Each structure stands twice: as C-alpha cells, then as structure tokens.
Amino acid sequence: MRRMSFSSAVDEVVPGRRKFLKLMGGVGAGLTLGFSLPLSLNARADEAAKAPFEPNAFVRIGTDNKVTVMIKHVEMGQGTYTGLTTLVAEELDASWDQMVAEGAPADAKRYNNTLWGPMQGTGGSTAIANSYMQMRTAGAVAKAMLVAAAAKRWGVPASEIQVKAGVVTHGSNKAQFGELAEDAAAQPMPDEASVMLKTPEQFVFIGKQKVSRKDIGKNDGTAIFTQDIKFPGMLTAMILHAPKFGAKLKTLDSTAAKASPGVVDVLTIPTGVAVLAKDYWSAKKGRDLLQVSWDESGAFTKSSAQIMTEYKTLSKENGIVARNDGDAAGALAQAETVIDTTYEFPFLSHSPMEPMNCVAQVTDQGCEIWNGEQFQTVDQMNIAKVLGIKPEQVTLHMLLAGGSFGRRANPHSDYLIETVEIAKQKKGIPVKMVWSREDDTQVGYYRPAYVHRVQAGLDAEGNITAWHQHIVGQSILANTAFESFMVKDGIDATSVEGASNNPYAIPNLKLELTTVKEGPTVQWWRSVGSTHTAFAVETMIDELAVKAGKDPVEMRMKLLDKHPRWQGVLKLAAEKAGWGKSLPEGTGMGVAVHESFSTFVAQVAQVSVKNGQISVDKVVCAVDCGVAVNPDVIAAQMEGGIGFGLSPTLISEITLGEGGVVEQSNFHNYQVLRMNQMPEVEVHIVPSAEAPTGVGEPGVPPIAPAVANAVAAITGQRLNVLPLKLASA
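That's the Putative isoquinoline 1-oxidoreductase beta subunit sequence above. Prediction below.
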C-alpha cells in the first residue's frame, strides 16, 4: 500500500479544495527559515530569558511571493491562525494579502509550546502567550535576510533599505519578497542580538482592526476537516460502546451486522465493537444490528442524584488543605453573621459541532494520522505505545478542528487510540473512525461534577472576616501523564484553580479539596477549574455584599485594593454598563470578575425575569489580556465565551440516571444556547503594554455568576445549583 499524502486525500473532496491545497503548498523554490528561537519564555513574553536555541521553521517565502506561516497550534475557532500570522507579518512588514497560515506537523523539537517545555500542544489559552516573541522574531529574521539579499543585489547599505507592505525598496530599486527569496536563502543567519523588533508605536498589524481572519475557509467551503478526508479503499468505522462507564464486552453476535449491505468487517477493540463499512451509513446500519451483552461487574452505577448526595456529605467532612491563611474556623466562630451555602455543578459535555473522528493508516513502517487534535506530542507517545513503535514513527497531519473546548486535548488520546486499534487490524488500509452525535454525548470525558461548600463570616461593620471553602469532585489528572507534576500533596491544581488564588482581602481563608476516585470519564472543559470556582466565589461575594448592605461593585473594589488589573476591568465594565442606573421592573444587573490564564475579565449581565423564565438581555464585558494582538479576535472570543458559558448557566447538564446510564443523547435533551437566546454583547479591551495572554477561555467563567447575581437582584432568590432554575411561586 502506498504512503497516503494529504493532497491525495483532499483531491477527492471538491475542486475548490484542490485549488486551496495548491495555494497552501505549491510555493515552489524560495526561502525556508530554520533559525534559533527561545525554547522557554518568562511569564512576560517581552522579557524572554536567554535560553538554548534549536532550529524552528516558521516562515516560508515562495517565489510566488506568498509568505507561509507554519502554525504550531491547532486552529479550532479561537483565531490562532490569524494571531500567529499577525505576529510574523508585523515584523516582516509584509502585505496581509500575501500571508498564508498552514498547520505545522507534529514535531516537539521544532514546534514545542514554549510554556510547556518539550511538548507540542494547544491549551490553557497559551497560543499567543507562548508565541508572541517567538513568531515576531521569526518575522524579523526573515526580513533581515531579505534586506541583506537586496543590499547585496543592489550594492547598497542594508541600513538604507526600506520594507513596507511586502515590497523592499532603495531609491528606484524595488523588489517583492518572492523576487528576493532565493538570494535571501543564501544569506548567513543574522545574530539574534542584531535583530531589532518594533516598538508598539511602529505596529502596523498588532492591535489593529484591519486584519482579516486566516481561517476564513470555514466560511467559503475550502476548510479541510477530518470528515473531508477520503482515500481510495478507505473504510469507515463506527464503534458500539458500553452503555455504562467501566462495563466490558461479554458476548457478541455479529452475524446480522456482517450480512448488512456495505459492511466489510466487525472487530473488537478494548473500548467496544467496531463495524467497518464502505461508508458511514452502512457502518451505522451495521452497528445497529450487533447483538451484544455487557459485563457490568466493574461498571460505575451511581446516578447523578446519588453522586450529589455523596458529594454534599463529603463537603461537610475534612478535606486536604490547599490554602490556609489565618484562622478561618476561629474567625467563623466569632463572626457576627455567617452564610453557609452549598453549590452544585453537573457533568458537562464539550459537544463541539464536529464530533470526535480520526483517519489512521497503520503500516509496517509506522502510523499516519489525519486529525485536528490539541496534544500532538502526547498523542504520538500514546499511539506509539499501542503499536509498539517509536513516537517519531507516528506522523500527524494537522487539520482544522470543528471546535474542541478541551475535548481534543485528551490525555489518553481516547478516540485516536480507538482508530489506531481498528487500523492495526487492517494494516495498510486507511480507516476513518466517526462518532455520531449520540456517541459524542454519551461516551464520556465530561467536565466533572462538583460540590462546593462555602462558609463566610461578616463582622458587625460588614467586613468579610472569614472564608472556608471545600471543593468535592473527580480529578481530571488522575491516571494521566500530567498527574506526576500537576498533583502535589493530593491537590489537583486544576480542581482548585480560581479558588486557590482568591484575590479578595480576606484575613482568614481556608480552602480544602476532596478528590473522588470513581465516576464517569472526565477531562478539562473550556476554562477548566474556573468553570465552577468562579461561580462559587463570585456569587458568595455578592451575597455577602448584599448582606452587609454594600454595593457589590464598591465592595469588590475595596477588597481588590492590591490587585489593580482586577480593579481595572471591574471598573470599566461597571462604567460601560451604567451600573446603578434605574431599570424596568423585572430587570436587574449582576456583576462578576475573574482571572484565568493570566487574563482578567469582568462582566455585567443585564437580565430579565418574566413568567418564571430567565432571559439574559445584554452583557458588558471588559478584558485585560495584555497587548491586544487582534482586537477583533479578542472580542469574538469574549462573545463566544459568553455564549458558551450561558449554556451551562441556563440549560446544559449531563445527568446519570438509574444504574449510571447517561440520560442525554443529542441536542434535543443536551440543550445548548440557541441563536435567539444569545444576548447583545459589548466588549471593551483595556489598553495595556503587558505581555499578551490568552483569550480563548477567560470569557467563560464570569458569565454564570453575573447572571445568578442579577437574578438574585431581581427576585431575591440565590440560585446555587447550575443550570439555574427559579423556584416555583
């Protein structure tokens, strides 16, 4: 079987996509830059520490004048293709129209996430943060080599040459990048210290609104997703999974399935039974005909109601201490007023518009994967382990991902491994494994369910004197490669983030964690721990303010006196929303402020309640993410994060019924926000010279508490269970 190529797969899709591939890859001879770039960055990207360098190829300039930027992070809607291309174009002084973004191959030596060490991957809103200096340097080096080539050709000093909008000039001499590409390739690599980066005053693209998206193919039909990949002789596989977590296959009768038209084979794999067919529909029909029974002796059989009862009991017991300032117990005992509240958070599905899928081909030489995943290095290692080969024998062809929200960053490479388990039994034959929407909803890897118990005390003057918070839930790091360095002394850092760094000036604060060992399969979900910690912290702070007779914004501002960036977004959001203005009856405002992934976001939600229904009418959002590389992308991510966060705020939840069976199956009963439910959103970006930080996730955490606080302002009801449901009159 011949080695499959990316272009051969796409050529079978549509002519427009063939044209797109030629545009992306057919740049001909030219300049490909491999140069020294920092392997690690400081917390402030613009003050990167000196570190050992290894070659990294990020820029390719073709004789056709196209500048291709190799993007080491997966594009899944968050704007990475646009953001990283902007950084290169800025220092290169290119024309935006000549810039092309292309997914880099899996190669941690060249394309590691500089904030993660020797690992390539996308997550934690780190794409811009870890690439800011790296990609700018890439563009600056390319420009220096083009200028050197022009200086040699024209016999003039390099210092007299100007570059603007993709054109190199000196007097009457002019040349486009493509005309200089081959000569530039012969120039010596400039010393890093000699490459000057622009000052903010010189920026043409960074911080400007005029750049268009570089993943626009999702709008015009040229975007290539895993589902678009087709090869001659390729088989489509669907998997029948056990109905309960932890159950195993007991008996199988595949006679009827194998006799179904289009079905080629039925195979067993560790996670279920795979039906291989000539197309998706045939595979689905064949799967429906499987006769199976399951061994449920090791299955998880608790319902959501049982889980919550257990968690609430555990929240009243002692946990492992994650933070302990002062004497919370003593301060609570002496407090004038104590509020004791329990918060409940359900399991949540990621539910990206593109369900999990993957194309794999296993041969004697290794394995090729076509997919848009977030953890390239982890996936290579996991796949290599299954096949008994070296990670470098696993080739990953990076595609666009149709959403992810953390799901395609699975530490176990779950759906990829399923595809490989099938493909290794069909050596040489490309296999496309597809999950249906029902599979995607029911097979697992959810945001864990949590319970928080928060006890807080006020003195006679209404000052917060005590805070005791206990979080109960599963660890998303248990039994993963990340556990060894992200779980310390029994504390999963992702379970307590957003609570362990509580910024409010509370003299006596104690935080505990109880990690539950059993449950459905779980993993990170957009904004990770802050999805639940922000709600508990921000609704309790609001309740304390009301109890103390203080304005919720003013009280927060005072408690955040040592945190100017928190104060900055809070003040801006409140001012832009008209905090304190008169509103119609049945309408109210709620506020929340949170920091996640080093980005600060405050949101004011204007909410109305009518006939027992909650409607979010408008959200004013203020964000401080350091240097705003692409303001339009930042605004889009805040808007998208608010919409995404409103789903679990109002309607989304995964529940386990009797015996531990998932009750939801598709969007009819795992509901997400509809277009007609999306509020008006107003985004304000704080001007900043700080290093840029992520925006893909930080827009999510504040929206739920802001809405809940608004509902409380209108109705007097403190809703502490998500999704929010008003008590019947």
